[in-house]
Amino acid sequence: MSEYRLVFSAALVTAGCLLVSACGGTPAPGGAGRPTDGTRTSSAPAPSKPAPTAALPTPGAAGEIPDAARLAELALQPGETAGVREDGGSTHSMDWIDGRPLSPDELKDPCTAMWGLLRQRGAHAAVSQTFDTEEPGNPTVNYLSSYPGTDAVTLFGRLRTALAGCPSVEEDGRTVTIRYEDLDTAGFPEDTLRIRVTMTDAGSTGPAEVIDRIVTRIGACVTDLSALGTEPYPRVSEAPVLRQIDRLRAAQGL
């Protein structure tokens, strides 16, 4: 199976199955204090967040790295974002993650590094959460992962470098184009990226699929919410991401 099909599958996760999707943005010159490697800044106000319908989590012990069970508790709860399943069966441990950090040779190749980092390589624990929605822009999947020590910070530095070095790849007759930007809207942590993956078939004049993704670091944790579709091309809603950020901040006492 090709890397982008493994990382950016076009089907929802169901129990026992996995989806990795992505979300979008268009690169522009970086703003003050930001890299000039294809990122940009935004001064747009934060979108309004839905009223919370679930209590924020109790903070854990100082320095604690959440395991899979704890991450499942920290995932978005029913009512906190449109489309979350309320049957209690939409969040499960990503037992397939590769806990080994990327090797120096893997890090040298930007595309290999990018796919690996987006697959939670080196994570301490990770869970996935599926969303039952047909509305463009509503998230279809949420990944939560935790990292030991300062690895979450390191991950973001490496991810920016990898994204800048892998603007496109050819996979199974498709051109996969990757664009990204720093998301500087109020309410988001400094380490927040919006990524757009556009997949175009050979000879086609328009995209076959577009995947929009917001990836953000909160302390030792990373959340990754995605929307995917054809036309109208998705731009994942920021409101559920902000609700997830609230939960991770509260749990870590940030």
Number of helices: 6
Category from helices, strands and their pairing: alpha+beta
Radius of gyration: 17 Å
> What does the average pLDDT come to?
78
Tell the overall outline.
Answer: globular
What would you say this structure looks like, in words?
This protein is an alpha+beta fold. Helix content is 22%, strand content 22%. It is built from 6 helices and 8 strands; from the N terminus they run ααβααββαβββββα. Strands 1-2-3-8-7-6-5-4 form an 8-stranded antiparallel β-sheet, sandwiched between helices. β4 (168-171) and β5 form a beta hairpin. α4 packs across α5. The N and C termini lie far apart (40 Å). The model is unreliable at 1-45 (pLDDT under 50).
Brief descriptors of the model:
8 strands; 254 residues; alpha+beta; disordered N terminus; single chain
In short, what is this structure?
With 254 residues, this protein is an alpha+beta fold.
Topology, pairings included?
Blueprint (H helix, E strand, L loop, with lengths): L2 H5 L60 H7 L16 E3 L10 H5 L1 H9 L6 E6 L10 E6 L4 H15 L2 E4 L2 E9 L9 E10 L7 E10 L2 E9 L8 H15 L2
Helix pairs in contact: 4-5
